[in-house]
Amino acid sequence: MSDEFGDRAFDEVLTRTARIAADWLGSLDRRPVGWAVTLDELRERLGGPLPDGPVDPLTVVEELVEAAEPGMVAIPSGRYFGFVIGGGLPAAVAADWLTTVWDQNPGLYACGPSASVAEEVAGEWLRDLFGLPAGSSYAFVPGCQTAHLTCLAAARHHVLRQAGWNVEEDGLCGAPPVRIVVGARRHATIDRTLRLLGFGTATLTVVPADEQGRMDVTALRTVLPGGPAIVCAQAGEVNTGAFDDLAAIADVTEAAGAWLHVDGAFGLWVLASPAVRHLAAGAQRADSWAFDAHKWLNVPYDSGVAFCAHPEPHRAAISVTADYLIQGGAGQPRDAIDWTPGFSRRARGFPVYAALRSLGRRGVADLVERCCAHARTFADGLAAVPGCEVIGEVVINQVLFRFGDDATTDRVLRHVVDSGEAWLSGTVAGGRRAIRLSVCNWRTGDDDVRRTLEAFRRAAAS
Fold first, then answer.
1. How far is the C-alpha of 310 from the C-alpha of 69, rounded, in Å?
2. What pLDDT band is residue 329 in, cutting at 50, 70 and 90?
3. Which Gene3D superfamilies does the UniProt entry name for this protein (predicted)?
4. How far apart, in whole angstroms, are the C-alpha atoms of residue 80 and residue 73?
5. pLDDT mean over 88-100
6. Residue 321: what pLDDT?
7. Domain coordinates of the chain in residue numbers?
8. I need a labelling partner for 405 at 20 to 30 A (CA). Which of 103, 183, 300, 309 fits?
């Protein structure tokens, strides 16, 4: 067994894997963006009984690639526009590989000092890039869902502590009621997070939103009561990319003594760009922020970040101790277990560190602005396609459009996806079917935009 899985095997299999990976990336411009296999075919290709004994690692990798390749979606392609998913910057991908090889657990400084310090540095770089308050605490998590969980757990602790209740010790039974205020067009992960934290969705106070998905601030003023309250605002509605009026919402929440949380999964990245940061004006006045790095920063999946302007409730809600853990010590190292809802986890700070360092401040701004410019080009090009209606304004990187009735919209989308030229997804806007196009990849260039527009022209003509 030791010979089969020794250093020589590692060298051989990793060298071969690097070649396979480079070939995959090199094929992106030629290959269909979608998959080319059925569910049953994939189950047959990847299935079968578990082997009785060991299988050579190189054989496992070669056969895995052969079996799985037809079911791969070319998400790293410049013509993948689905679900607000970014690609992978070269430095971030390489750092992610090293993260796997190094196999550090940054939950405790003692388990991976370099991984812990890389998170410290990347966290401070992000805080500075977004202009968040000095001293804000942070957590590297799998994605925006877990970032919401982290932030809203801190919010729950804070507002109940102000009301004289210790939720970590006494739970929610008998606790003072907490008013949770959300917008009508919030992301589904907000509701899911609140369920996990013990706040039933039937208890939410839902504020109306306009046709672009922006929370009605006038209505917010009428529903926000005294007593413990948490308001969830949005920077970048998932269909339209629209932003709540965060400055006005901050005025209301500050006056009411409520906690303001911002869902900025992809939209918060506008704070890195002088050209579009005005869209999130007032965001820095919030109490917590959740966003993804695997979207606009183009870090490989999975990578989300939570920030909290109040470290004390953040730590109180999340931290944990045990006799066997080695926490703190000389120089007061940062133990991520105090801030992140996970004991053992991947060292996500390395790829984020690499992405930020490779781009620099100007590079992040350019990436955001370039994607926004491509979205505007898409909107102009689609508006010229016979039968196409671009819905609403293009705020940042999201384009929403439809063709005639629902059936026609779905047929045109299916035609484009089946052609392999691009991949994007359908949605519902105003009770009708629509198509959502998200420009979020560093690879997307003028030719990708041209090819995708041509695919829609052909689909509409057919």
1. 46
2. low
3. Aspartate Aminotransferase, domain 1, Type I PLP-dependent aspartate aminotransferase-like (Major domain)
4. 9
5. 97
6. 86
7. 7-74, 94-355, 368-461
8. 183
CA–CA dist 300, 306 (Å, integer): 17
- Checking if the pLDDT of 1 tops 60, the result is no
pLDDT more than 90, % of the chain? 92
Q: Is the alpha carbon torsion for 102, 103, 106, 112 positive or negative?
A: negative
Tokens of 316: 């109180």
Strand partners of residue 15: none
What digits encode the pLDDT tens for the residues 20-72?
999 999 999 999 999 989 999 999 999 999 999 999 999 999 999 999 999 99
Integer Rg of the chain from CA: 24
Q: What is the mean pLDDT of residues 305-326?
A: 93
Three-class secondary structure assignment of 333-397: CCCHHHCCCCCCCCCCHHHHHHHHHHHHHHHHHHHHHHHHHHHHHHHHHHHCCCCEEECCCCCCC
Query: Is there a contact between 90 and 299 (Cβ–Cβ < 8 Å)?
Result: no
Let me know: does 231 contact 261? Beta carbons within 8 Å.
yes
Asked if the bond preceding 302 is cis, omega within 30° of 0, the reply is yes
Domain covering 94-355 assigned CATH 3.40.640.10 in the classification: yes
Surface-to-core class of residue 29, CB atoms within 10 Å of its CB (0-12 exposed, 13-18 middle, 19+ buried) = middle
Nearest to 231 by CA among 241, 239, 240, 223: 223
Res 10: pLDDT: 86
139-162 tens-digit pLDDT: 999 999 999 999 999 999 999 999
Q: Is 50 exposed, middle or buried (0-12, 13-18, 19+ CB in 10 A)?
A: exposed
Count CB-CB contacts under 10 A for residue 70: 14
94-355 matches 368-461 in fold: no
pTM of this prediction?
0.96
Amino acid letter, residue 461 = A
- List the beta bridge partners of residue 308: 137, 288
Task: Give me 361's structure tokens.
Answer: 């401040």
Residue ranges in 27-56 assigned as alpha helix (H): 39-46
Fold (CATH) for 368-461: Aspartate Aminotransferase, domain 1 (3.90.1150)
Is the distance from CB of 305 to CB of 126 less than 8 angstroms?
yes
